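Here is one chain, start to finish.
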Amino acid sequence: MDLFLAQDDARRRAAGMFTLAMCLMAGVVAVVHLLVVLCVGGAISDAAVHRSVVGWTLPATIAVLLVGVVVRVYALRLGGSGIAEELGGRRLHPSTKEPGEMRLVGMVEELALSSGIPVPEVWLLEGENSINAFAAGHDPSSAVLGVTMGALERLSVEELRAVLLHEFSHILSGDMQMRFQMLVWVQGILFLTLAGRLMIASDAPNKAGFWGKTGASDHHKISGGRLPAKDDEGQSRSVIGLLLMVLGFVSGLFGRFLQAAISRDREFAADESSANALASVIPVANALRKIGGLPNRSWLENPTAPESGHLFFGASSIGIVSAFFPTHPALEDRIRRLNPEWNGDFLPSVVRKIELESVPRESLGSGDEGNLSAAAKAAAAIGARKREKLRAKEMALVTSVKTYPAANLDFLGLCMQPAQLLSSGVLKRTLKAAWLDLTHSTEGVKVLLVELLKAPINAKLDLGSASTSQMLLLMDLAMPMFRRLSVAEYFQLMKQCRREVVRPEAIDVVRFLLLQMVRRRIGISLGVREVSPVVFEELPSIWQEARVLISSLLRMGAPTQSGRSAAHLAAWSSLGYENPTPPLDDCSVVEIVDALEVCEQASPLLKKRLLVACGLAASYQGTIPEREMAIVRLCADVLGCPVPHLSTGKMEVQA
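Its structure:
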């Protein structure tokens, strides 16, 4: 699956969803107006009645819908964490000591590093014994991954990894962002139901029943068959409130239909993406079969689950509405799509207790050895020596890699491949323990960022020996703790970085872009920066900015004039320009960042073309130096489309 193509498809679906939502809201406004006309005793054809009420029915209805949207936008301003809290989740700390949680957090870190996105926050739905998971957020920078306790305890390691890969596919393909936006519009429509309830409740103190304290017969006697004016007003308010509730419910059904219409087919694509990443359909198929083997399947007990049901790995609720408007394909269809030979049997699942001994030794902190038995300590010591030898070999391998094949740019934006899953684990194991410790606290990540940007770097931490790939990995791992900063701490940190580090005439371009990447990520996750909308669809709209980026990378790549000329021609040829304009003589890092901010508003497919051209501009004799490859990845992240780590060898594309 080409992620850029999938992101572009998701963007177009989101535009269609927005159009349908607007049409639905316009229809709701019109129906409410007609209901009010009928309730005041007018005829549908009476133009005078329409004119008398339209001045307040339209603004009032639109205001109610907008209030619903605004309330939801505010509740979800911090991204997926708002959804996780509503579902009763508990946020896991990156340095948790509970074995099951350690395994889950470590697995999410591994997959995030493989995909090239910042490590999402991990939330555990402790009160849910079914098997399910979800991803939610405005952007990969604000994404969270939630997992039910049933999934953690009942799935094997590979099955849990397959479920998480399914959710990562939604994050990378843009499905998550589209589905998250849907929550806002559905909430705006359902807010009519709440408004109706409030209207009925406002009349309740003066009414014992629908007709008031005295009853309908007494009112008939008092007023000669007509209610007093005050009671007429209250009755109309109650009737309108009841009709609003019904209208909100019916409109909510259309919202659920909208959810189902745009999410069902994406589940098949995410299942296939998970299977491709693991090079096997068995883990994800078995996870689905275990869901089918549970009495409560993937259904959640939390009452807010139906509203966000389209975010989950499996159907989160059961009922008449879910039966008519399912947000997910049937389990049987999903399993048969993966394994046509399936015989129809589901798998039983049992709760597994995860022991500390089963957690990899490198996941343990310095204070965890006392929790191990004597036999486990001895086994751990032997394993530790073997791992040290392996670590030394891995470190030698990673540090020896100085170039990347330019041919791998052909695979830019492909969903995670098995080779990438392996390389991320290798890279993480080459990170020093002191560096990893800094990623486990808010103070530590602030120190880590400042020290990485400083020149010279703190000798005590030895961050000067970190390769550019390791610097990127450290920032990915630090993201969960960065997201725990307050807004005031964020601005203070950025101010410190600018004061101590950002000197455009002297700073290294890698570190300058690293700061821009972190600034964007944290800003979006804290709600102080918006995700840029798509403005530019065609290359001529960003031609000057593309020229700045390509010219900058040309100067960093090929060491000879002939090499730069060849790279310049290759870069512009990939964009469709056979006779390109000569490159710019000099571009500052500030100009590079300004160009990236403009290009962030390009469509996903245009961003892919631009990144491939940047990679070709940095290439020399078919290879891309590691530092320049890191700059291309940093540019991609600043553009809002992080890409997986490219392999150092020939990447195999799964059929």
